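Thread title: Can someone regenerate the structure for this chain?

I was given the following input by a collaborator and told the matching structure tokens would be attached. They weren't. Posting the sequence so someone can regenerate them.
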Amino acid sequence: MLIAAGVAYVLGIFGGLGSLESPALVVVAVIALVHMIRFADPAWLISLGIVASMFSGHWVDLGLSTTIVPDRVLIVAGVAAVLLRLGPSRDRPPLELRPVHLALAAAFTFALVSMFAVQTTGNRAAVFGLIDQFGLFPFLVFAIAPTVFRTEKARRILLGTLIASGAYLSLTALFEKLKLNGLIWPDYITNPWIGLHFGRSRGPFAEAVANGLALYACAVAAGIAFVMWRRPAHKAFAAALCALCLVGVELTVTRAVWLGAIVATAMVIVVARPLRRFIVPAVAGGVCIVLAAFALIPGLATQAHDRQKDQSPVWERRNSNAAALRMIADRPLVGVGWYRHNESAEPFFRMNPGFPLSGERAGMHNVFLTYAVDLGLVGFGLWLLAAALAFGGAMRGRAPPGLRPWRIGLGAVVACYIVSGVAGPLEYVYPTLLAWTWAGVAYGRRGADVSEAQAVSAGGLGRDDLERLPGKLA
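Best answer:
Regenerated them for you:
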């Protein structure tokens, strides 16, 4: 009880709980935390926390709190249960402290000190950007994922929630484009005054880039299900869902995500030797999906053509990237301070004879340059080292057969995320949290409790193929 109360207190300090949340809500959150820590399987808590995070930033539009929200409560409960080894976690092996965890702690600590140094602790976006997106929650779920998802049963829970998420997101994307508003939930998705990119499929994120990244990750999860599931009907459903999620990616009409999905898919098929025989079917299938969507979905082809011709977002990114490089040169070591990139950027914009000056007020459009601007080369270097150790370690060496499809999927998800991150700030909870959790699942290969006989499925990949898959991504 004291631990749960302490967690709620910490959330209150960082989120302005005292002025924004009622005492009754705090009590309910504490009781829920205690109950979940004591009785719930952390695999369910973390998986459902990831699913709930797709509504992050819009809980108020659903009539809920702005600070104590379901995704944070679920993630905190899952992390606390594992760290304290309570409830169903009491028999799990203790966490192994490795260099990657020290690097993660160093990167987060540097950003936290930077936030206090420049006094952005009163900025809710800065605080929750640090908690939800840069480090705290993503780093924590990465650390506990090897323990939480070490069994095939636990990984089935995560896979099932991603399949359900993919079905919801892809159908919602289709309903948005067909203007079937009565079938869309939540209804704030249809409100043009909430979020960005109205007119494109943006889902519960109310933002097309986040929706596209989530849809692609769910498409990858459907591909894993196709490999792992045995029954023909289940495999057919997984294949259909994968195609529908890719259609959803197309409906976001977002060039960065389109490029990320193409690069990621091509990379995985080419690098993973057993998948190379699927190059022709994959190319043919992708072309068919694109052409069919353009032909059957009203207005999509015109919207995609107009989006392709629109050069203003390109000019904005070129201007903001140039400004970011000037800011890094001006403050190379420790940066301008956590989450001060936008308020400090305008003086660094310069006229270029090759394209119009724009984007001064649009903010940074490159997540990596943003971190370098805020934290300098020292802080960004710590974060980059931590990410390299985490994701590189997850895809290095041999893994049990049951984890090999997850490792291949991780390569696709990370590649899409990186390509999209070059063209956008990626201030989205769901894709970030999922990527770090996925990396933790793959990183936990040493303690994975899987059966090779169960891992070798009827999906066309034999035991020898599965043996060769992970090494090709290393």
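Residues 1-20, 449-474 have pLDDT under 50 and may be disordered.
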